[in-house]
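Thread amino acids onto this structure.
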């Protein structure tokens, strides 16, 4: 009898007993009957051949990819249970015999997480060996080792083990990411509707065995980001085209062409007169500022007092005064600069570097590229910084 005939007979028997092929295999694998042990062993020993068949390869590959994507965010290893922060009285009342049980529960949780990590790593290695484009885990590992200055020999070993991409692929990925970010910076800054924010950061390059030729060094550099201005677009972009007007009435201008009608003190006084937060609208009720202060006092009593906890459900929220609407801003990080911004000249160097990264400048300067750069001489560029920025 041929194989097809025997297969037809088996399928007819399954159909007569109301079982599908998938239900039959699942029942055999889950069975605890000793008579089914040989069939179970046959299925488990040949599962690789079954999954690699053309008809099942696509579905198995899709399942493995979905499993890896869902399990990539594994959280903190061995995190404490939600009830770890118990009161001191409960900790004192616990007996010594209960402590090992708690450690065992935590160890069990850590083991579960570690098993999941191992499963993700194994599946990722199998996927990457089948298809080189399935390198999500390997790509993240490569970028991580590049950012932490891991030696190249270690990267090569990890790449041969299937846990990382190759050195050339890492360099290409870094170059591609840098080029994409550079294009995004220029695309956003050239609209002249963005602001810059920068600050210093310190790096200590420590040498294990310092010598006269190879010493430890401390570098103070500058990082920056591009912040798109909310509410400013092409329809009202001319609102920032006021550089000449502001400079004409600036007090530091040696030859101003116009003068402000009010000085800064008078403008602050006018704002104070229009202030409604400190003013009582009703003689029998406190002002909005006094109401806000009273709410903060009640909050301190409820949260830190000993006899006011039962008023927590009556605390409520303070009354909003000139609420600022919440808006999510997508920042674009700029390239770090090896500039120590401790002087005014160095702050000018930082701004020149940021304008160069953004592709903007003054068309009257020598380094201006008319084919690619955008003239910003008539616009105002907002910059956020502390210390010497105003100077």
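Threaded sequence (391 positions):
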């Amino acid at each position: 009898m041929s194989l097809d005939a025997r297969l037809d007979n088996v399928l007819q028997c399954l159909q007569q007993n109301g079982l599908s092929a998938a239900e039959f295999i699942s029942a055999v694998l889950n069975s605890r009957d000793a008579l089914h042990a040989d069939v179970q062993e046959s299925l488990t020993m040949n599962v690789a051949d079954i999954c690699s068949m053309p008809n099942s390869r696509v579905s198995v590959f899709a399942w493995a990819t979905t499993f890896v994507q869902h399990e990539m965010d594994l959280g903190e290893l061995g995190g404490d249970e939600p009830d770890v922060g118990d009161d001191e009285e409960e900790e004192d009342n616990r007996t010594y015999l209960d402590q090992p049980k708690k450690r065992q529960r935590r160890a069990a949780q850590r083991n579960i997480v570690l098993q999941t990590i191992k499963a993700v790593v194994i599946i990722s290695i199998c996927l990457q060996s089948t298809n080189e484009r399935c390198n999500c885990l390997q790509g993240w590992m490569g970028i991580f080792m590049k950012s932490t200055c891991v030696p190249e020999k270690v990267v090569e070993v990890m790449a041969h083990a299937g846990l990382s991409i190759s050195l050339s692929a890492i360099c290409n990925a870094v170059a591609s990411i840098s080029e994409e970010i550079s294009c995004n910076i220029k695309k956003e800054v050239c609209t002249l509707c963005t602001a810059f924010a920068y600050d210093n950061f310190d790096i200590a390059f420590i040498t294990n065995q310092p010598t006269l030729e190879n010493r430890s060094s401390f570098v103070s550099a500058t990082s920056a980001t591009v912040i798109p201005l909310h509410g400013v677009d092409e329809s009202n972009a001319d609102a920032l085209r006021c550089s000449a007007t502001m400079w004409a009435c600036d007090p530091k201008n040696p030859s101003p062409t116009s003068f402000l009608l009010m000085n800064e003190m008078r403008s602050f006084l006018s704002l104070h007169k229009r202030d409604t937060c400190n003013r009582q609208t009703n003689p029998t009720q406190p002002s909005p500022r006094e109401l806000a202060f009273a709410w903060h006092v009640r909050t301190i009593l409820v949260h830190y007092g000993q006899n006011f906890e039962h008023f927590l459900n009556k605390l409520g929220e303070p009354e909003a005064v000139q609420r600022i609407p919440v808006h999510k801003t997508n920042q674009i990080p700029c390239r770090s600069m090896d500039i120590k911004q401790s002087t005014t000249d160095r702050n000018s160097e930082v701004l020149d570097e940021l304008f160069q990264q953004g592709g903007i400048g003054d068309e009257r300067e020598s380094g201006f590229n008319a084919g690619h750069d955008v003239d910003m001489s008539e616009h105002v560029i907002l910059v956020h910084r502390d210390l010497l920025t105003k100077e």
